[in-house]
Amino acid sequence: MPGKRQFGIWAAVVLFLLVLGGAIFVGKTYFWSSGSEDVPATGENSTATTTVSGPQIQVGIFLSAFTATGPRRQMSPYGYQTQLRAMKSMHDPSIRLVPVIEPGTVHIPQLQRILTQYFADETPIDVTDDNAMQTLDVLSVTSAADLQDDAVRAITRHVRDGMGLLERQPGYLVPGYNAQTNALCGFRDGVFGWSASPVECEVVGNHPLLGDFSGQAGKTITLVPNGTVGHLIGIPLIRVKQMHDVKLVLPGRTVGTGEYLYPLYISQLGKGRIVGIGFTQGQAVPQELEAAHHGRFYIHCVQWLAGKGLS
Question: Most buried of the four, 32, 88, 115, 144, by CB within 10 Å?
Answer without folding.
Answer: 144
